[in-house]
Amino acid sequence: MRGYRDRVPEEYWNHNVHYHPTVLDAVPQGRGAALDVGCGDGLLVRRRAGRARRATGVDRSAAMVPLARERSGHVGNADFVEADVCDAVGGRLPEGGYDFVSAVAVVHHPGFARAVEAMVRLLAPGGRLAVVGLANNRTPLDWVVSGVGVPVARLRARRQGRSGRRAHRRPRHGLG
Questions:
Q1: Are 102 and 22 in contact (CB under 8 A)?
Q2: Host domain of residue 28
Q3: Number of compact structural domains in the chain
Q4: At 34, phi and psi to the nearest 5?
Q5: Any domain includes 173
Q6: Which DSSP helix (H) or strand (E) runs through 152?
Q7: CA 7 to each of CA 26, 31, 43, 115, 157: distance values in angstroms, whole numbers, following the listed order
Q8: Is the pTM of this model over 0.70?
Q9: Could you tell me if 85 and 123 are in contact, meaning their C-beta atoms sit under 8 angstroms apart?
Q10: Which of these, 97, 119, 123, lies nearest to 107 by C-alpha position?
């Protein structure tokens, strides 16, 4: 992980980060507890910490959770749990304990239905769930449609002063 820490600035852009503003807009201002499933290095948790009393990230990657803790040490209301969200409900993650739960590009790891079921169980009554999912490309048309989005996303990142170059991409990680 040392090389990753050296290459990735605090603010960076990749396909997942592209959806962070949309997810953050869904967070009710001043609400209690928020959970990011598949938190990786904790960037979305850090961004969400200003909108929630407590921001928690969960990831099953033994490498990413320590990195998230290291990068988020200055954020007093952020914490991180190393666990698979599907196995942690009612244990390390309290059932009904979160006002907002999000998952960006991770529900395909354990399977959509299983992941969503677990996340719904984590929601408090009246809570919100935000899921950004990725479909598998199965047909040539799927690949064409996916490919068309790449230059548009890169152009948008450059216009916003962020780089989408390979050196700034986050390594793959598992579902929280």
A1: no
A2: 2-134
A3: 1
A4: -125, 145
A5: no
A6: helix 140-159
A7: 30, 34, 15, 31, 18
A8: yes
A9: no
A10: 119
